[in-house]
Amino acid sequence: MSTQISPAQVGSQAGSSPKAGLFYREEPYIARRGLHLDLKGVPPTAERLLSLLDLLAAARFNAVLVEWEDMFPWTVDERFRCETAYTKEEVQAFAKKAEQLGIEVIPLVQCLGHMETPLKFPEYAALREVPDEVGGLNPLAPGARDLIRRMIDDVLALLPGVKHFHLGGDEAWSFGTHPDTKAYVEKHGKGALYMHHVEPLLDHLAARGIRPILWHDMMCHWESAALERLATKADLCVWGYQGHPATVATRAHYNIENIKRFNEHGISMWGGSAYKGADGFDKELPVPGKRIENMLAWAEVAHQFAMKGVFVTAWSRYNTMAPQVDPIDAALDLLVMAGAILYDGEVPAAGMAACEEWLAAFSATESARFTACRAVMAELERLKAAAWDHVRLAREHMALAKIDPGRTWANPKQNIKYIQSHIGRLEALLARIKEVYQGLVPPIWLERLVGERLVALQEEVEALRKDVPEK
């Protein structure tokens, strides 16, 4: 049976002197501490979504940024729902429990880039900036803004009490490339085009007493007039998941000089770090050192610029069409570390060990499941890497035989046998993954997580067999 103790009890057990434990400060270092839930990959079951809130509250998070994507029970178009989308009642239960725990729910609906959920359907093709790219919305296309407004209203129908609403707005790679948008930019500028599209949506939210938030990266080269106009309408979340804004390359969108410029234009800001999902397009586990460095950096920068808060993001896919990465329950130690850094402003003296000890004190069940989930993901990562090493070696043996005919007895077939052996182990591992994640993630997403890695290797074996010369 799970044994849980309150956040206050956890803190008292850890001690009250600086760096003696977690959550020791009388007042938090960062006032608003938000954890991000990216639900478009390895999404939690409805039951796990609720129980995660208990952990978030204990780890001193007081906001949760929810990127619903295809897990939301959309009514604007039910095809936007995936196979395991939550019901209306499950979304409302989540919001109710969050409120009871003092956690502000901040929903996120994309408004420009990352629009794959609706734009992948042919009926919405006319709204694409580029005809054969489903990620970017054409802000001048008839019906484009109306689609976003209806999606916003869909969410607000189930979450009517929200105070902030995130509209995404980042990484619109094709922005301004359609003939119509290109002409608009040439005449008015990129900032004007962006505001032409998004300002009515900002006003739509403001009319309901909701403060909008946007990712910052599209605004880095805006003219001053557009930035000043934006400052009155929305907050910016300045994000970057590697290193420190003060030391990253000058060209990096989250370089400290961009933050200073936003500050000079009176823009209210949030920081955006990552505790998982930022270390590779197909990773199974986050890299603790990189995550801790980045979270510390954003706590410092947020404090320096008096930002409204910090969101610690937790990506499960790099976009809707990308492979799944980093399941939540294999990274709970870093989730706790994120809470500690934002609350205390520093890493506990015992580092990651302190977070694992805290997790065990909070709940023996949570701790045991985390250990098991992390172990199977580590094994998945190891087997996958080993298999791809043998793919590379097989190809190099084949290349050797081609460029140096005197060494034609190089043996790629042995490498193929090793790959097949690893494939067999991966197939067997899936059963163990489903066992330890039972009740945490719907089985279909675990099957696809492994399948995304497994099928790629199986196809590579078939290709290698065709290419290996007969002797």
Q: From the helix content, strand content and strand pairing, which structural class follows?
A: alpha/beta
Number of helical runs?
Answer: 15
What's the order of the H and E elements? Answer: HEHEHEHHEHHEHEHEHEHHHHH
> CATH topology of the largest domain, which one?
TIM Barrel
Number of E-type strands: 8
Helix content: 40-55%
Radius of gyration: 24 Å
The number of domains? 2
Which superfamily, in CATH terms, is the homologous superfamily of the largest domain?
A: Glycosidases
Overall 3D shape: globular
Oligomer state equals single chain
Biggest sheet: strands, sense, closure? Answer: 8 strands, parallel
Low-confidence stretches: 1-20
Major beta sheet, strand line-up: 3-2-1-8-7-6-5-4
CATH class of the largest domain: Alpha Beta
Mean pLDDT across all amino acids: 93
Which second-level CATH architecture of the largest domain applies? Alpha-Beta Barrel
Describe the structure.
The protein is α/β, with parallel strands linked by helices and 471 residues long. The protein folds into two domains: 356 residues, Glycosidases (TIM Barrel, Alpha-Beta Barrel), CATH 3.20.20; 97 residues. Helix 10 links the parallel strand 7 and strand 8. The longest helix has 40 residues. The protein is globular and about 70 Å long. It starts with 6 loop residues before the first helix and ends with a helix.
